[in-house]
Amino acid sequence: MKTKIDHRFFYVLLLSFLQSCSSIFNLPSNKEKSTMGEITSSTKELESLPPPKEKIVIGVYKFRDQTGQYKPSENGNNWSTAVPQGTTTILIKALEDSKWFVPIERENIANLLNERQIIRSTRQEYIKDNDKSAPALPPLLYAGILLEGGVISYDSNVMTGGMGARYFGIGASTQYRQDRITIYLRAVSTLNGEILKTVYTSKTILSTSVNGNFFRYIDTERLMEAEVGYTQNEPVQLAVTEAIEKAVKSLIVEGIRDNIWGKKAADPAGYKNLIDNYTIEEKDNDKRILGNKYPNHDRGKFALFANLEGQQIKGDYVNPKANFGAKAGFKYFLNDHVNIELNAGVLTVENENIIKRTFIVSEVNLEYLILPNFKFSPFIYAGGGTMFFNSSNYYKAQFGGGLEYLIDKNIAVRLSSQYDIGFKDSWDGFVHGNNDDHAIRIGLGINIYIGN
């Protein structure tokens, strides 16, 4: 009887846990009504543009997916396209929202012409020949400018990553993936076929996943396992819409700036704030690279540095003891990635209640900075050096690596780890076995860059 009560209590507890997790992760539990479509940040920018003096009649025959890309799939082939096939309709909606253009039907022009022909035929059949008052069909509008282009690229897994941890059967993890679409849009004059302006925009598409799980044996015959997770994928349609809207805005602003729209636009002075803000955005974009990252070129040609270190020997005696040490030096950059480093410092070798020696150390290293254009960059290095104690001189090699972060324009902090390889087995004054003495050093320091 007691076992049954325990089982019931456990089931109630598990059900409550799952229900609470459902609330935490906002999992859908009811059907949703149809709603109006979401708007993007670029939609609001388009709608807030200052109006033109006169709207521009514009035609779009075809603005389609030119990538040929299918949706990425982990479970075999997927014949669904990665990009929505209604991008012409999205572009026309963006042109309407801008209130700068009068879009005319050209994508399905054959349907329009057929319908107009039906109207003419019907009128001729039912209107008497002598009825001169029958109105004629008005002529179709013609476009002064055509828009061409399309979605020319869909790149999957441009950036992926994640992190997680597990301890004693309890774990959690998170992952992300970024795809990217690219759009080109150009305005063509119907008067002479001249391409007036071409613009290019891109948009990343983010997918994230958060998972938690529990896996543990309660006893030899009972296993408890629980799992919860949440995944969110940015809709591709919204990403395409935002990129197209951004392209339309760019086309309008650059057209004003380069006087493409002529008398259709009001006095360019009235758009000064709009053009200035767009120019600033262009300059910022010049510094941007893949992944919406903005490189930083503040590291100089030279650098002075100082490190505070924790040090410990790997020698022949037992009970090695950690000590504090320090080093300081100078770096000269051969290029953005590679520098030559000279430094001097102290290294203390100590085994508890046995020996303690403090060496004066000088080193030469060749260092490689992996991401020199970013504030946060890993680095690796290797080189050789000498160690002086009393009148004895020891040679060694060393290699290491770490992380550097620019906290100010020319100041960076560094966390590093270094392994010293001795060529003799007598650092601690005792020769034993076939292995030479080594040392491990972990340092925290500062770099001051000079001469940008």
Automatic annotation (TrEMBL):
Superkingdom classification of source: Bacteria
Pfam family, one: CsgG
Record SUPFAM superfamilies: OMPA-like
Keywords for this protein: Cell membrane, Lipoprotein, Membrane, Palmitate, Signal
Record GO cellular component, one term: outer membrane-bounded periplasmic space
Protein name (database record): Curli production assembly protein CsgG
Source organism: Epilithonimonas lactis
